[in-house]
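Researcher: Let's try something more involved. This one mixes different molecule types, so please make sure each is placed in the same coordinate frame as the others.
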Amino acid sequence: MAVSERVQLDLDAFVASEYPKVVAAVGLITGNRQDAADAVQDAIVGFLAKPPTHPVTNLAAWFTVVASNRVKDGYRSEAARQRAVAKLGMPVEETTDAIELLDVDVAEALKSLPLQQRQVCALHYLMDQSIETIAEGLGVSEGTVKTQLHRARKALAARLRKEDHHG
Amino acid sequence: MADIDVLLSASLKRIAQPGDAAGVADAIRARVDAGDTGTPATASGFGARPWWLFLLSGLLVILVAVTGVSVALGQPSPVTPTPDAASVAVSSSPTSSPTLTPTPTATPTATAAPEPAPAPAEPDPEPAPPADTTAPVVTVPTSSQPQLFSANGGPTTIAALATDDTGVVAVAISWAGWATGSASMAPGWSYTLDPSPGPPVFGTVTFTVQAFDAAGNASDPVSVDVPVQP
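Model: All components are placed in one shared frame. Result:
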């Protein structure tokens, strides 16, 4: 109770509506689905324990970035990669479903992006946030977000085309 | 490009695995009430520290270290060899000189005069000192860490403690956050940063400090996150 008095974060509402998406985004960004939930909860606890004096307008984006900055980058670990593919439930060799193959390619391509681009991708494509909202939430310029998104999109597109040729 | 947007949006939504919200709110409340501070609310701005920042600070640090080495090499040579040469010269010519008044008249024993030449021949090449492979150690004591950056707080100073068996020649500091940059710490190892670019919306400034000795050995970098208060 003491918590909700101190901050303008409706914890129950946030957890019910945004939390699952934030965890999904952090898992996607870091490739470390195991630690994603813990990292998001740590970020929320930190926020509540010592709220920033400046109002955070886009909590979902903010928690996503804070948590994904802290999670050990699962993409760096081959073991984690194997787990991630396994969790997708689509052994690459066996699936023939076009959609599933595409998803595997996208997941693979995403790995090649720098953290910042992965963050913007998740916020934009997964959480459907506009460039303006992302920029506002992260306290960076729209240009920064646009640039990151553009680079990510270009890299992903190129990568997916390449995968296509192989397949 | 529109196609790829649709494709990515759909694909990422299929791939991503939403978190399970059950019981999370209560668990979080319990943690906060128990005094858990979690990840600092001000932690980490957008994106991790960019790789090029490390590269940049690394280059700067190498530059500083190299300058330090050349200075270190340049200074001792005139100091140490000189007395050596002098003592050799004196001891090699004793036969004639002690009694002779060292007057300018070059007359005395003509034979003795040309002799002392051998002195410079052996510049005693100091047996190369064992290579210094011990890296310095640097820390940023808690008491020297800025507690907070504030828009109205003015310049903030961060100080480091650096030690090395042969002496620390440089301590490089870099920072990332609302502003990024790098510098070499002032002797005594402190640096004052003026947050003039203005306050960020949120985040931290991450200071990274690294010490170097004359041999170019680098300490492990030490990072300190300082919350920013707009």
